[in-house]
From TrEMBL:
Organism: Kineococcus aurantiacus
Phylogenetic placement of the source organism: Bacteria, Bacillati, Actinomycetota, Actinomycetes, Kineosporiales
Enzyme class, broadest EC rank: hydrolase
Regions of compositional bias (Pro residues) in chain numbering: 1-11, 76-91
Protein name: D-alanyl-D-alanine carboxypeptidase
Plastid among keywords: no
Length: 281
């Protein structure tokens, strides 16, 4: 199948006047959660709060589920989107309940309001289907002296929709589209995506510097053994539609990971020949 040509999006994210980019939904959600926790706990954490707040964070960007901000340039055609061969046999990539489902800005969940069966791991809801592997991963990390935590797991369609609706009311449609993900387009809605954090560098929670922590190094070395893929790797933004997110891991299973390694590809879009990129379909 030949992918549809990428059209210029009428909702292209805006660059702030100072040239800064907005934060991903992951970062904003977690920062707000942590800040709320500190307030509830009555922590006199002025210094910590200062560290946690980004210099670029603004009220308008501080929405839960603010989505990846980052298409600062015109949308580019996604490389690797033309399948060289027929799709590999295996689970569906379009069924929302499939372990191999591909969700990106070109491919929303189907059905749009899909919700998985849930389980709680590390205090967060995730798809029940990944609970065993996720628990095993956390146990292995702990046994090896690495303090991993789960910052974010499943996020529902309705939560995303209410956030998006209120953002539209507040900011207008065009601006809201650049700030918050459309409901149905977040991989977190599958329950298969997990944002990890760690205790070694609290200021790096959902920030690029998480990639330099021992927790990140452990994940890169070991998460694959439990079926987790680094979903938004370096250099793949035109393919995945997202800036690198060293904290965001997606369960796909060890079988698919082995096949991807054989082919030498790092993204689901390239492996399956599925279109992606920074523009919404
Ligand atoms: Zn995430």
């Amino acid at each position: 199948m030949t992918p549809a040509p990428v059209r210029p999006s009428p909702f292209a994210p805006q660059v702030r006047p100072d040239g800064s980019r907005r934060f991903s939904h992951d970062a904003v959600v977690a920062r707000r959660t942590l800040l709320a926790g500190l307030v509830v706990a009555g922590a006199s954490g002025g210094v910590l709060l200062t560290q946690l707040r980004s210099p670029h964070e603004t009220a308008s960007a501080a929405d839960p589920a603010v989505h990846d901000p980052v298409a600062l340039t015109a949308p580019e055609p996604a490389p690797g989107t033309a399948p060289a061969t027929a799709p590999p046999p295996g689970p569906s990539t379009t069924d929302a309940a499939s372990p191999w489902v591909v969700v990106n800005k070109q491919h929303p969940l189907n059905p749009l309001e899909y919700a998985p069966e849930l389980a709680v791991v590390g205090g967060k809801e995730v798809a029940a289907s990944i609970a065993g592997d996720l628990r095993a991963l956390l146990d292995a990390a702990r046994a090896e002296g690495v303090s991993l935590s789960i910052t974010s797991g499943y996020r529902s369609f309705s939560r995303q929709r209410s956030v998006h609706d209120s953002s539209v009311a507040r900011n207008g449609l065009e601006s809201a589209e650049s700030l918050s993900a459309r409901p149905g387009y977040s991989e977190h809605q599958t329950g298969l995506a997990v944002d990890f954090g760690g205790s070694s560098a609290p200021g790096c929670l959902l920030e690029n510097c998480f990639g330099q922590t021992p927790e990140s190094a452990w994940l890169r070395a070991r998460a694959g053994a439990f079926g987790f893929l680094l979903r938004y790797p370096e250099g793949a933004t035109p393919v995945t539609g997202y800036e690198p997110e060293p904290w965001h891991w997606r369960w796909v299973g060890t079988d698919l990971l082995a096949r991807m390694a054989e082919r030498g590809v790092t993204t689901l879009e390239e492996f399956f020949g599925i279109s992606g990129g920074t523009a919404y379909a």
